[in-house]
Write a structure and sequence with these properties.
Blueprint (H helix, E strand, L loop, with lengths): L1 E5 L3 H12 L6 E6 L7 H4 L24 H5 L13 H18 L3 E5 L2 E6 L5 E5 L4 E4 L1 E4 L14 H4 L4 E2 L17 E4 L3 H12 L6 E5 L20 H8 L3 H14 L4 H17 L2 H19 L4 H12 L3 E13 L4 E7 L5 E6 L1 E4 L13 H8 L19 E3 L5 E7 L5 H4 L5 H16 L9 H10 L1
Parallel strand pairs: 1-2, 1-7, 2-3, 7-16, 8-14, 9-10, 9-14, 10-11
Antiparallel strand pairs: 4-5, 5-6, 11-12, 12-13, 15-16
Helix pairs in contact: 1-4, 1-14, 6-11, 7-8
The structure holds flavin-adenine dinucleotide (FAD).
Flavin-adenine dinucleotide binds next to helix 1, strand 2 and helix 2.
């Protein structure tokens, strides 16, 4: 049975490694990823030296059964396992695992290509089309494509969106490097992306003022230097989670946070329960969470390494970084720079400011209806995948199988990663992804109902290698 995994970042690469090395079956695993992005993906493969992991090294094993795998790979001492290491080191670890799997397994093929179309075959299985015009058959396909390319920020005019004064993808090599050191910057977003941007600008000796804007002006909270002892959730809080009662959960969480020394252990203890909690919410409750609770949840859930937090604090104290709570209403080009019209939170007045560069740092894009991603566009147009009610990604069943425009499972087409956020919300960090990878690997091993003729596929693979 051929399983094709589209996307070779953390999720795709780790799933391929799992399937190719853990199980003694006759699976034929084909990992297809964009060239130069194997193993680490956007988060780790392209990370600069100043970008740190937002979890402790000792917890970041690539697979759920070996949480200390990364620390062991680095041969870290007990003490060092609590450290927040550079993301690039994690990228090397992931790539090393993938190379090992390629070297030792006989059933893993890797292809450096973009998948541009996936067509359902009558009965079962798929045609997978690559960007060089070749195609092959696959019994099962996993979409592990990560988040989608950034969409234009609301309010940003079409001319500015195509101008070098607008930085849509701060991760892209060279994008921050081309900013003048004295430039006045507006960064839209105050989460971990903004934090990375400021760290890089500091490293480059940026002198100009930086304004970071978001609806609530909330920064990510900081981790502590030493991890506190974990806490068990009391039955009362567990009940509110199982009852899917957002209001009661908030109250119970606040109560528990007051009783423990460090609120972080409460947030961490809740994480394993949250996918089921989200599934239990009605669409209206989910929308309510996104509208009111999301910024607060995210600032506590996605935390900065202490060293990074200190750097952000220092940059604020120096007056070079200002955090503003408000909304960007409009931005466009003027002679020398750009203008931005902002309404501060709680104010009815609009204010107009001038900057030199606007950087988009609003987090992961997962709206499949507005995307320019060719494969996702094709799948949406064909009705093979369909958006979830809140525009968080694509509809999938509980075990990650895509649901088509009629709400029917697309047998053999799975999704793992950010596009499945609509189904389970917490699905973007290593912790949640590696549990999902474990479950999906087991599911994928289940025998297909019908085998597809293989020779054609093998020839196609041979051709594109
Ligand atoms: C900057 C950043 C930092 C992060 N830091 C942390 C952290 O410290 N800790 C943590 O737990 N989580 C972190 N995360 C969360 C992160 O999303 C996950 O940890 C993980 O990297 C996601 O992996 P993925 O495989 O789902 O997506 P990605 O890593 O984005 O991989 C998807 C891959 O699919 C490829 N692709 C897309 N479309 C196609 C196609 N049609 N054909 C072929 N290939 C395709 C892409 O090029 C990409 O290489 C971070 C995220 C970002 C963006």
């Amino acid at each position: 049975m051929r399983i094709t995994i589209v996307g070779a970042g953390y999720a795709g690469g780790t799933l391929a490694t799992e399937l190719a090395t853990t199980y003694d079956t006759d699976l034929d695993v084909c990992l297809v990823g964009t060239p130069g992005n194997f193993g680490g993906g956007t988060a780790y493969g392209d990370a600069r030296g100043e970008h740190l992991l937002n979890a402790r090294a000792g917890q970041l094993g690539a697979t759920a059964d070996k949480p200390a795998g990364f620390a062991r790979w680095l041969n870290l001492s007990e003490h060092a396992r609590d450290a927040f290491l550079p993301r690039a080191a994690y990228g090397e670890y992931l790539l090393d695992r993938l190379h090992d799997a390629e070297a030792t397994s006989t059933n893993l093929t890797t292809l450096e290509h973009e998948v541009i179309e996936i067509d359902r075959l009558p009965g079962r299985g798929f045609h997978v089309h690559l960007d060089d015009g070749s195609r092959f058959e696959s019994d099962r396909v996993v979409l592990a494509v990560g988040a989608l390319p950034p969409q234009r920020l609301p309010g940003v005019g079409p001319r500015l969106s195509r101008d070098p004064r607008y930085v849509a993808s701060p991760w892209q090599a060279g994008e921050l490097e081309r900013i003048d050191r004295d430039a006045r910057l507006l960064v839209v977003g105050t989460g971990l992306t903004m934090v990375d941007i400021v760290a890089t600008l500091n490293r480059r000796g940026h002198r100009g003022p930086i304004v970071a804007l978001s609806r609530h002006g909330l920064l990510p909270q900081s981790h502590t230097d030493m991890a506190a002892d974990p806490v068990e959730l009391p039955p009362r809080l567990l009940r509110t989670l199982h009852d899917s009662d957002l209001r009661a959960l908030t109250a119970a969480t606040r109560r528990l946070c007051r009783r423990v020394d460090d609120w972080r252990v409460v947030v961490d203890a809740m994480r394993p329960e949250l996918q089921d909690f989200w599934r239990g919410l009605s669409p209206a409750q989910r929308a309510q969470f996104l509208r009111h609770a999301r910024p607060y949840w995210e600032s506590h859930r996605h935390r900065m390494a202490p060293k990074v937090a200190a750097e952000i604090e220092g940059t604020r104290a120096s007056g070079r970084l200002q955090i503003v709570a408000g909304r960007l209403l409009r931005a466009g080009i003027i002679d020398e720079g750009l203008y931005a019209v902002i309404r501060r939170r709680g104010s009815a007045e609009v204010e107009r400011y001038e900057f030199d560069v606007l950087v988009r740092a609003t987090g992961l894009d997962t709206d499949i209806t507005r995307t320019t991603h060719p494969l996702v566009q094709h799948l949406v147009a064909a009705g093979t995948i369909t958006p979830d009610a809140l525009g968080l990604g694509m509809r999938v069943s509980r075990d990650g199988e895509a649901l088509d425009a009629d709400g029917q499972p697309v047998a053999g087409l799975y999704c793992i990663g950010a596009l499945a956020r609509g189904e389970c919300w917490e699905m973007t960090a290593i912790n949640e992804l590696r549990s999902a990878i474990y479950r999906l690997a087991r599911r994928l091993r289940e025998p297909a109902l019908r085998r597809i003729a293989q020779p054609d596929a093998a020839q196609a693979i041979g051709r594109v290698r």
